[in-house]
Amino acid sequence: MMDKAQSIESFYKSKLNCIPENLQKEMGHFNVFMLDDFVGCHAKPIPYSRKDFYKISLIEGRNNIYYADKTVVIDEFALLFANPQVPYTWESLDDDQSGFFCIFTEAFFQQYGNFKEYPVFKPGADAVYTLNADQRQAVKNIFSRMFEEIATDYVYKYDVLRSLVFELIHSALKFQPAQSNPLSKQKASLRVASLFIELLERQFPIESPRQQMKLRTPAEFANHLCIHVNHLNRSLKEATEKTTTQLIAARILQEARALLKHTDWNISEIAWCLGFEELPHFINFFKKNIHQTPGSFRNV
C-alpha cells in the first residue's frame, strides 16, 4: 500500500524544516521554488505518493516520470502537472538537474475559476508535457515572473499569481502532450493494482457508525481511476491472481470481522457502514465467506 497523501504542512517540514505563517489563511496557499534546491546527487528519493495539494513543475534533466500507471522518459525538459488524486514520482537519470515548481491548494482558486476542469489536472489525462528549448524558455519566463511577483508588496499580487498559473496551464495545452512510454505489461498491472489498493484502503478503517464506504463495485473503482473496468480486472488478475470482486470482498470481510469483535455496534449498523443497504445481504455475504453468521462470529 502506498504512503498516505503528503500534506502541505509535511512538505514544508520535510523540505524546509518550517511552516509559513500564512499557510492556514482562508485565501488558500501558493508558493514557488527553485527545483535546484531539492534535486541532484544529495536529494532524497521522492516517494511514489499522492499530495494533498497541486503542483506544477518544470523539470530540466534526464528523468523517468512515473505518473499513475504510465512512465514517461524525459531527455531534456518537461512540464509536470500533479493533482491530489493521482500518485507520482520521478527518477533522476543523472545529477544534472534543474528547474522550478509551484504549489497551491484548491482554496487558493476559490471563486477564481474552476482550474480543475482543465485536462492537465484530470486523473486520466496526460499530465506530462515534453518541451523543446523554446517552450522551456517560455515556461521558465512564467516561473521567473512568479518569483518577481511573490516578492512584491502589491496588494493584488496573488491575483497576478493566479493568472500566471492559468498561463502555465494554457501554455501546456498548446504544447504536444508527451507520449507515454509503456511499461512492461507486468509493471503496468502492478501500478494499476497499487492505485486500486490505495483507493480501497482509503475507505478504512471505519471509525463511526455514520461512516459508510462509497466504492463497492469494480465499475465504481474503475470509474474513479478513469480506466475501463475490463482493464482494471485484467490488471488486478495479472498482478494479484485474484479478481477485483475477490479483493473487495476480502477487505470488506477483514473490516467486518474487526467491527464485530471490537465495537458494540449492532449488526445492522455494521452492515450499513460496509455498503449493505439490506441486513440479509450482509448476513448472506458473511456466512458464504466465513461459514458463520455475523452474530455467531461475534459471540465466539
UniProtKB/TrEMBL annotation:
<dbReference type="GO" id="GO:0043565">
    <property type="term" value="F:sequence-specific DNA binding"/>
</dbReference>
<protein>
    <submittedName>
        <fullName>AraC family transcriptional regulator</fullName>
    </submittedName>
</protein>
<feature type="domain" description="HTH araC/xylS-type">
    <location>
        <begin position="220"/>
        <end position="300"/>
    </location>
</feature>
<dbReference type="InterPro" id="IPR009057">
    <property type="entry name" value="Homeodomain-like_sf"/>
</dbReference>
<dbReference type="InterPro" id="IPR018060">
    <property type="entry name" value="HTH_AraC"/>
</dbReference>
<dbReference type="GO" id="GO:0003700">
    <property type="term" value="F:DNA-binding transcription factor activity"/>
</dbReference>
<dbReference type="Pfam" id="PF12833">
    <property type="entry name" value="HTH_18"/>
</dbReference>
<keyword id="KW-0238">DNA-binding</keyword>
<keyword id="KW-0804">Transcription</keyword>
<keyword id="KW-0805">Transcription regulation</keyword>
